[in-house]
Amino acid sequence: MENQNQQTQTPQVPNQMPSPVNNPSGSKVIPIILGVAAVAIIAISAYVLGTKQNQVPVQNIVQITPIPSPTADPTASWKMYNNQQYGIAFMYPREWNVAQRDVEKMENLGELGKPYILELRAKPNEQYPPIALLIYNNVKNLSLEKFQEELRSGPLTGDSIPIWTKFDSQIVNSDGITVYYGNEKYCGSYQCRRYSWKGKNKIFTLILFNNYIPTYHQIFDQILSTFRFSN
Length: 231
Known about the structure:
By secondary structure, this protein is an alpha+beta fold. It has a domain at 80-229: Protein Transport Mog1p, Chain A (3-Layer(aba) Sandwich), CATH 3.40.1000. The protein is built from four helices and ten strands; from the N terminus they run H-H-E-E-E-E-E-H-E-E-E-E-H-E. The strands form two sheets. It has a seven-stranded antiparallel sheet, covered by helices on one side. Strands 1-2-10 form a three-stranded antiparallel sheet.
């Protein structure tokens, strides 16, 4: 049995692997992508570097506030007038002169007595003092208003310089003294200025006669600012 003895032979099919497909377009895409990425990286790096170079470096700016120099005291070189009898003191220009008016030439104010008058002159040969300080006895301790009424009812009438008017302004000097200020228009041939205050049973009136000289204005105010009651 020839057919039975013969082994059945299965035809062998050779293993055939598919040959790779050659795609020329795909091989070109990868280099293009890499090139674009490289260009982008270069562009970004150049931009960042340029931005850093264009930035202005921030500096720590320290603002220094200048300390104002202290204002010079205009009365630093002045002389001190000290009257122990009346318990007063004030500063006046070194080149000026302070003198008491002759008592015999002063008008008697009745029970108020004669005022004590200090004359301040810038020059020895000045006929009239530009500044004067009048000191009245205030034995009744009257207010400036009431004392003014006493003066008007006595020998001082007419065009005499008042020590107080209802138009006065009130100020306080550097020593805490309350002062009344007035601008009068009948000090002889000059317009005058006046400061009046009270203390130690006295009435004080500081008068500027030469009101038209600005320098005298400053000296007049500075004399008042330095006035104080001494012990």
